[in-house]
Design a protein that fits this description.
The protein is α/β, with parallel strands linked by helices and 373 residues long. It folds into 2 domains: 185 residues, 3-Layer(aba) Sandwich (Rossmann fold); 153 residues, Glycogen Phosphorylase B (Rossmann fold), CATH 3.40.50. Helices cover 48% and strands 15% of the residues. The strands form 2 sheets. A 7-stranded parallel beta sheet has the order 3-2-1-4-5-6-7, sandwiched between helices. α2 links the parallel β2 and β3. α1 crosses α17, α7 crosses α13 and α10 runs parallel beside α16. The chain binds uridine-diphosphate-N-acetylglucosamine. Uridine-diphosphate-N-acetylglucosamine binds next to α1, α5 and α11.
Length: 373
């Protein structure tokens, strides 16, 4: 009998991480039976459905339909629904990716139900617990039997937290598996041309962290900086629903448009990576985009005080600019004056991380953490 692996996704950045893991498990149908759960944390077609289509993901076996809410409301809602799913499906393993609320909610349920837990993208730390994702990462890692790590810093962080080496596996980056496999399609997409932009002559902006967009004053300062930057180079801004709502509420969307910043809908995966691949520079507060730009060789200016992905900075493609908008304006000038780098990617960011993970999991008995021998 194949062993059942309950695979949980919820938010946009989960989908491109889970897709190659599902594909790798489906290549072993006599040994592994993945069951896909979508929590519904992200529910818009543009934030969810289109990713399933482009990534060739099977439709979720189970959809929890949880939707938005405060952190506690959302996390608790997912936990209540997941507890039932775990009881009904009796999985041998629960698999989570990344650091969103769906990740921590499913992890806590697995631990309480005595189900062994695997966490993909473990060990990353920004050392800033004001970020909800940092709390999600710490708790999830504390509960997982199998910790799959993308970069060396993650191994060191987990060791410092006292995690036994037998739980830690440096396997590379499943998100890059997806990027590698879709690169031919991405290269043919030329989304920039469709928006009237020339390759190498525009910047891509993404901003959605609560710390950058929820505070009206902070958001207005970012808009001011983008107005200045747009004089230097055309900017396209695929706006997350949270950001679009905040810009509209503050009457700032019109100001950006008047300054020539193209605000567009959240983009599907292929279109978004096509835009990033052809850009001269990316300005972002995202986590994953720091890694995608590293592989694509697009200079990235990270509009945050910290990064949980230091390898991207060490390699030189990513620069941590901070959250003072005037620093970002200066950093853009410097980036435009410097030739882009295309360093070799970190170890194991080679398109085969998911296969490694599935090989490791398939080759062992699964035990919940802290089960007395
Ligand atoms: C979540 C993740 C964040 C990730 C981001 C990527 C957490 C704590 N945060 O943040 O790490 O970088 O996803 O997108 O899990 N909304 C919609 N439609 C959607 C989804 C969201 O309109 O399909 C709106 C809702 O009004 C919602 C708000 O966006 O209240 C925020 O969504 P939520 O999932 O709570 O957090 P994100 O900001 O998307």
């Amino acid at each position: 009998m194949p062993r059942t692996v309950l695979c949980v996704v919820g938010a946009r950045p989960n989908f491109m991480k889970m897709a190659p893991l599902l594909a790798a498990m489906r290549r072993r149908p006599d040994r592994l039976a993945p069951l896909l759960v979508h929590t519904g944390q992200h529910y818009d077609a543009a934030m969810s459905d289109v990713f399933f289509d482009q990534l060739g993901m099977p439709k979720p076996d189970i959809h929890l339909g949880i939707g938005p809410g405060s952190h506690a409301t959302q996390t608790a809602g997912i936990m209540v629904a997941m507890e039932r799913v775990v009881a009904d499906t009796a999985p041998q393993l629960l698999l989570v990716v990344g650091d969103v609320n769906s990740t921590i909610a499913a992890a806590v349920v697995a631990a309480k139900a005595g189900i062994p837990l695997a966490h993909v993208e473990a060990g990353l730390r920004s050392f800033d617990r004001r970020m909800p994702e940092e709390v999600n990462r710490i708790v999830t890692d504390a509960l997982a039997s199998y910790l799959f790590v993308t970069e060396e810093s993650g191994v060191v962080n987990l060791q410092h937290e006292g995690v036994d080496a037998s739980r830690i596996f440096l396997v590379g980056n499943v998100m890059i598996d997806t990027l590698d496999s879709l690169l031919p399609t991405i290269r043919e997409r030329h989304k920039a041309a469709e928006l009237g932009l020339s390759a190498g002559e525009y910047g891509v902006v993404t901003l959605h962290r609560p710390s950058n967009v929820d505070d009206a004053e902070m958001l207005a300062r970012w808009v001011g900086a983008l107005e200045v930057m747009a004089r230097r180079l055309p900017l396209v801004f695929p706006a997350h629903p949270r950001t679009a709502a905040r810009l509209a509420a503050e009457g700032l969307a019109d100001r950006l448009s008047a300054a020539g910043v193209q605000i567009v809908e959240p983009q599907p995966y292929v279109e978004f990576i096509s835009l990033v691949a052809d850009a001269r520079v990316v300005l972002t507060d995202s986590g994953g985009i720091q890694e995608e730009t590293t592989v694509l060789g697009t200079p990235c200016l990270t509009l945050r005080e910290s990064t949980e992905r230091p390898a991207t900075v060490t390699l030189g493609t990513n620069r941590l600019v901070g959250t003072d908008p005037s620093d970002a304006v200066q950093a853009l000038e410097e980036a435009l004056a410097t030739a882009p780098l295309k360093p070799p990617p970190p170890p194991f960011w080679d398109g085969h991380a998911a296969e490694r993970i599935v090989e490791i999991l398939d080759g062992r008995e699964w035990t919940a953490l802290g089960t007395p021998a």
